[in-house]
């Protein structure tokens, strides 16, 4: 239905990272969320890719590239379609592009809560069961609560307990740092800076590609 430059992953609302996403957000951003949906705190994610398959040949090749993504992170919970989460939806929708061939009617049949459920459904039953387990990071000296057991399997995509703890985290990137180390003697580095609808480069040597400015810098 949509495509975007955003990154999504799942987490447990009881984990420290979930609280940090909210606690480090500005007051305005915290108020933008619902009871379970919100956030907007700063985030930085790093990926190291050593090998990758060529899109055309399918052959594996060495890429030796580090990607560092900076931006803001948002939590999507069971109340994502509520009025309280409206501003969060607006922030994310601004960075989403409708796929070619999709219509306004298609978009009206799509929903945020259905998308969150799809992420939950993409997990296998054992992974879904972890959201019914003991609170992550809590010392084992504290006994788990009623029904909080390890190794549970959840088949019901609307399981009340698991869905209460399940969150989708969406990273809205504003800066991407790419370092190519495939040639040990000639490392290269690029910065991608989100410019939105501003089609003018602001950095020396920068070039605008879509909504991003790309500039090569010394590694």
Automatic annotation (TrEMBL):
Pfam families: Pyridox_oxase_2. Gene3D superfamilies: Electron Transport, Fmn-binding Protein, Chain A (2.30.110.10). Residues 3-76 form the Pyridoxamine 5'-phosphate oxidase Alr4036 family FMN-binding domain. One of its GO terms (molecular function) is FMN binding. Residues 82-109 form a coiled coil. Keywords: Coiled coil. It comes from the Eukaryota. This is Pyridoxamine 5'-phosphate oxidase Alr4036 family FMN-binding domain-containing protein.
């Amino acid at each position: 239905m949509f495509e975007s430059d955003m990154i999504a992953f799942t987490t447990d609302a009881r984990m420290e990272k979930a609280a940090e996403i909210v606690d480090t957000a500005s007051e305005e951003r915290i108020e933008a969320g619902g009871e379970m949906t919100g956030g907007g705190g700063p985030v930085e994610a790093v990926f190291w890719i050593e090998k990758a398959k060529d899109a055309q040949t399918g052959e594996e090749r060495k890429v030796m590239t580090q990607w560092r993504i900076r931006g803001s992170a948002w939590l999507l919970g069971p109340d994502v379609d509520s009025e309280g989460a409206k501003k969060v939806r607006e922030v994310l929708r601004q960075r989403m592009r409708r796929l070619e061939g999709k219509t306004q009617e298609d978009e009206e049949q799509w929903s945020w809560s259905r998308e969150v459920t799809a992420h939950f459904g993409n997990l296998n039953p054992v992974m879904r069961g972890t959201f019914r387990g003991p609170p992550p990071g809590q010392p084992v000296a504290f006994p788990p609560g009623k029904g909080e057991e390890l190794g549970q399997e959840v088949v019901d995509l609307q399981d009340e307990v698991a869905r209460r703890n399940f969150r989708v985290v969406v990273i809205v990137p504003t800066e991407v740092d790419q370092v190519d180390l495939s040639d040990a003697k000639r490392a290269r580095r690029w910065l991608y800076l989100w410019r939105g609808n501003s089609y003018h480069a602001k950095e020396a040597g920068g070039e605008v590609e879509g909504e991003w400015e790309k500039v090569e810098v010394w590694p």
